[in-house]
Write a structure and sequence with these properties.
The complex is a heterodimer of chains A (358) and B (270). Chain A is of the alpha+beta class and 358 residues long. Chain A has helices at residues 44-52, 94-104, 109-122, 138-150, 168-185, 196-202, 220-225, 230-235, 349-355, and strands at 6-15, 18-28, 33-37, 59-64, 67-68, 79-82, 156-160, 188-193, 205-210, 213-218, 240-248, 251-254, 257-260, 270-276, 281-284, 291-300, 305-310, 316-321, 330-335, 341-344. Chain A folds into two domains: 6-225, 3-Layer(aba) Sandwich (Rossmann fold), CATH 3.40.50.300; 239-355, OB fold (Dihydrolipoamide Acetyltransferase, E2P) (Beta Barrel), CATH 2.40.50. Chain B has helices at residues 2-6, 8-29, 40-43, 48-81, 89-95, 102-113, 118-125, 137-162, 165-173, 178-207, 210-216, 223-232, 237-261. The chains are: A alpha+beta (358), B mainly alpha (270).
Chain lengths: 358, 270
């Protein structure tokens, strides 16, 4: 990989004695769509604000294109931010809002006019120049906030939960629109969200954070299919996380039953955590199942049924399937070897606090 | 119907203490001692003596409004940026004097400024020449600023508190330095508070007679003093009412000008 565009080195930040970020290192490549994902309080927004210059790290460096910008104020940084609550200037109309950054930079009037037109077209709001901020809906205001940022031709756009305040349908539309925008502009996006679906849909790279630490960094597929620890598995989508013992390579024992899997290199007879996604569990005839249990719960979710199957050991398996199994019926559970994901158990309590929060 | 009955006490209040007194002032202002219609009371504002009092009132209240604004804005800004919430200690300290009687506070200044008062006492202890402090225009402005400053600070502070931190961050993010942010974001967004503050300082300062009585002695007559004297000493209610009407028109005019600049109506005292 060539030199990263943004490089966070050993960033540490605490507020009132509470450590929010602890020795965080993160590299962002040029032209990437990187999402910082995590529950509230995990430090994702603080990370973004440190990159934007609104917070200063207690320790560590922010390197932008090979240059240390840790001490630069926001107005001297070559990046722009889209804020969670839009933060539009309510005393200006739409055109004035978009023109703000360009006027500060002393661009010519004709240049500014062209840019406003271009930006409004880009966010599908042509002709809104003279509207007031308060006459726009939330989604429209967010588009203007994006337009206001991108007219300055930043090399990086920072987005702080920009879709958080929008309703579901609008949020989904805006997700596609953001992907389109990013492809048209060809700049780097750093996106903060707590919504795992949003992260999976839009990102090239997802950085899962919890309690100030990066838990896992990878492509959406890696994060979803190969979570590195129980926190990531639990936070990204629903999953069954069960304790198991790695008998040998490609064989794991769960509740005394052996399952074939594809993971290797964990050693022999080692305790591990096993992650099985609810949609990867096949409900079969009891005689054909590796485990058998009784269906104890059934909810229709639209696309699929959500069921709980309780096995004799008392574990409730979450199962997603388009086939329905009525409550009380005995069923067999079958899992394909490649659907079983093995994770190391946290080595110490310390690591557990870092890795798993509940 | 029963809901309308609930409004009855207020209707009585409005009629008894606002509409009837106003009507009486209009009646007295437009009649002479014999009860005949005349404009003489109103027109008498044009006499040199009254005109002088009116201009002096206007001038002094304008000056104290400006002084209040200059003092209050930075203070409100500091209070807001400290992140002190409403009801916090500093704001409390600021409001505290407002709970004390207005007359008492002004009399305290009288004691301080008097010829043989506290300040001159200290000056003579230091072998410095005594200053002529009381009964000057400066003393009146001081009294006005002291009494009305909280009325300027609070509305500005409130409106500044409503400005989201991220709005300011956004300006900075878009390249504005702190002076540009002040001029293009802070000031325009705080206009409603400033206007409210100006109204709440200017109007009482313009019409005051207590402050000028206590700190200006009989030497400096404001329009408020003139009117007060017509009612109390001169016993000429007709002239006093006539001048009050003129004052009312001035206030309404200034409010109209202010309202014109207050687009959102947030800061209006009405």
């Amino acid at each position: 990989m060539s030199q990263p565009l943004i490089d966070l080195r050993n960033i540490t930040k605490s507020f009132d004695g509470t450590v929010v970020l602890d020795d965080l290192n993160l590299s962002v490549a040029e032209n990437a769509f990187v999402t910082l994902l995590g529950p509230s309080g995990c430090g994702k927004t603080t990370t973004l604000r440190i990159i934007g210059g609104f917070e200063t790290a207690d320790r560590g460096q922010v390197v932008f294109d090979g240059e240390d910008i840790s001490k630069l104020p926001p107005n001297k940084r070559q990046l722009n931010t889209v804020f969670q609550k839009y933060a539009l200037f309510s005393h200006m109309n739409i055109a004035e809002n978009i023109a703000f950054g360009l006027k500060i930079k002393g661009k010519s009037n004709s240049y500014i006019q062209d840019k406003i037109k271009y930006a409004l077209k880009l966010v599908n709001l042509d002709g809104y120049e003279n509207r007031s901020v308060s006459s726009l809906s939330g989604g429209q205001q967010q588009r203007i906030a994006i337009a206001r940022a991108i007219v300055n031709e930043p090399r990086v756009l920072l987005l702080d939960e920009p879709l958080g305040a929008l309703d579901l349908k609008l949020r989904q539309d805006m997700q596609y629109e953001l992907i389109r925008l990013k492809n048209e502009l060809g700049i780097t996006f750093i996106y903060v969200t707590h919504d795992q679906e949003e992260a999976l849909t839009m990102s090239d790279t997802i950085v899962v954070m919890n309690q100030g630490y990066i838990q896992q960094m990878g492509t959406p597929e890696q994060i979803y299919n190969e979570p590195e620890n129980a926190f990531v598995a639990d936070f990204i989508g629903e999953s069954n996380i069960v304790p198991g013992i790695m008998i040998q390579d490609e064989l794991v024992e769960i509740f005394g039953t052996r399952f074939a899997c594809v993971d290797k290199g964990f050693g022999n007879n080692k305790p591990v955590d096993v992650v099985i996604r609810p949609e990867d569990i096949d409900l079969v005839d009891p005689s054909a199942g590796t485990l058998t249990g009784v269906c104890t719960h059934l909810i229709f979710k639209g696309v699929h049924y959500e069921m709980e199957v309780t096995t004799p050991d008392g574990f409730e398996w979450l199962v997603h399937s388009t086939d329905m199994c009525p409550v009380g019926k005995e069923v067999g559970i079958h899992v394909d070897p490649f659907d079983i994901q093995i994770m190391n158990k946290p080595a110490s309590e310390d690591e557990e606090a870092v890795g798993v929060n509940e | 119907m029963s809901k309308k009955l609930l409004a009855a006490p207020y209707l009585v209040w409005i009629a008894g203490f606002i509409i009837i007194p106003l009507a009486l002032i209009v009646y007295y202002g437009l009649t002479d001692r014999d009860g005949a219609f005349t404009l003489a009371n109103v027109v008498s504002i044009g006499t040199p003596e009254h005109r002088k009092a009116l201009w002096l009132s206007l001038w002094l209240s304008l000056l104290s409004t400006i002084v209040c604004l200059v003092l209050a804005y930075p203070l409100a800004m500091i209070l807001r940026n400290r992140g002190v919430g409403r009801g916090s200690f500093i704001v409390f300290i600021f409001i505290l004097p407002m709970w004390m009687n207005f007359l008492l506070r002004t009399m305290a200044w009288q004691t301080l400024l008097e010829k043989n008062g506290v300040i001159n006492g200290i000056l003579s202890l230091l072998h410095l020449p005594n200053q002529n402090l009381i009964n000057t225009a400066g003393a009146i402005i001081l009294g006005m600023v002291y009494n009305f400053l909280p009325f300027m600070v609070l509305p500005i502070y409130n409106v500044l508190c409503k400005i989201d931190d991220d709005t300011i961050n956004a300006a900075s993010d878009l390249g504005a330095n702190s002076i540009q942010t002040l001029l293009r974001i802070w000031f325009p967004l705080s206009v409603p508070g400033v206007i409210s503050g100006i109204t709440m300082v200017f109007v009482p300062a313009f019409t005051t007679f207590v402050i000028s009585n206590l700190l200006g002695g009989s030497k400096i007559l404001l329009i408020g003093n003139v009117i007060e004297q017509e009612f109390t000493r001169g016993s000429n209610w007709h002239l006093g009412s006539g001048l009050s009407l003129v004052l009312m028109v001035f206030i309404l005019l200034s409010m109209a000008v202010i309202a014109k600049y207050d687009k959102n109506g947030e800061g209006s005292a009405f």
